[in-house]
Amino acid sequence: MVITVPATSANLGPGFDTLGLALNLRNEIEIKPSNITSIEIYGENAEYLRSLKRNFFVEIFSDIYKNLTGKEDKFSFKFNNKIPLSRGLGSSSAVIVAAITAAYEMAQVPYKKDKIINLALNYEPHPDNITPATLGGFCVAKLKKNRVYFLKKFIPTNLRAIVVIPNKPVSTAKSRNSLKSHYPLKDVVTNISSTAMITAAFFSEKFDILKYIVEDKIHQENRMKLMPELFRVREIALREGALMSTLSGSGSTFFNLAYKDDAYNIYSALKDNFKDFNVKILYFDNVGVKVYN
Ligand SMILES: Nc1ncnc2c1ncn2[C@@H]1O[C@H](COP(=O)(O)OP(=O)(O)OP(=O)(O)O)[C@@H](O)[C@H]1O
Ligand SMILES: N[C@@H](CCO)C(=O)O
């Protein structure tokens, strides 16, 4: 069985822990029943992941598989990773969502994607990465009493993401600790109105308005100060025609949305100015986690 899962960009600026979308940059995992457990890792951060004593995917997969079947069967795992670690592209959510889905598939227990999203929450309390990793598209998610409520919208094919991936990781857990616990009412209102406008823009496919309404007062500026070059990434992307330009999740990646005809200009301006950063044009993903038997 092969399972693939997309990278995700969470928050979209003001939609902290609420908005997210899926990008066509996928980790691929091949799993086969075997007499012994074996793990092969290729691609992004392979050397680092090989050096770890515990494999996050295999641990989650084994727990869920045992819960479902009562058995401790052995499998061979081959990972081909494209999502860089701790860059705000949802690498941890991708692992969690893929591992849970793989366990249900291998155990041959029927499931709905709603189930995957809610189980994933036990491992990471951020529905804004988990929901689009599972479903693809643009997702709005709300966590209430330990349950995720969500809505998804397909992202049209005339849009592209231009991502700027710095060479420095940012741990989500650490970067959350640096955030304030209280905010003035006017800042809260800025985020509520901006998040509502972004949601309406995606659901009505009226993307031009994004140029004027994306404002965050909760987390972005503080997090961007950890890597001040990101202020210039935003300035250049917007100047070259991006519809919006936001920190991806907790960073360090910057996410830029553009019409496909503007994508190359934005990409080359960013590439020329940030030679040490990895700049990519990506399609959006509207499918989410996918299984090939
Ligand atoms: N392919 C992988 N295989 C095993 N473990 C992984 C893999 N990808 C990520 N992880 C685990 O997830 C951690 C990264 O999680 P973190 O939340 O800091 O970053 P992220 O999910 O990439 O960013 P964000 O949540 O802001 O989008 C890694 O340190 C590692 O423990
Ligand atoms: N909403 C989470 C996403 C982490 O990718 C945060 O900003 O910390």
From TrEMBL:
It is found in: Cytoplasm. Its EC number is 2.7.1.39. ATP binds at residues 84-94. It catalyses: L-homoserine + ATP = O-phospho-L-homoserine + ADP + H(+). It is an enzyme of class 2 (transferase). PROSITE patterns: GHMP_KINASES_ATP. One of its GO terms (biological process) is threonine biosynthetic process. Coiled coil: none annotated. Pathway: Amino-acid biosynthesis; L-threonine biosynthesis; L-threonine from L-aspartate: step 4/5. Catalyzes the ATP-dependent phosphorylation of L-homoserine to L-homoserine phosphate. This is Homoserine kinase. It comes from Caminibacter pacificus.
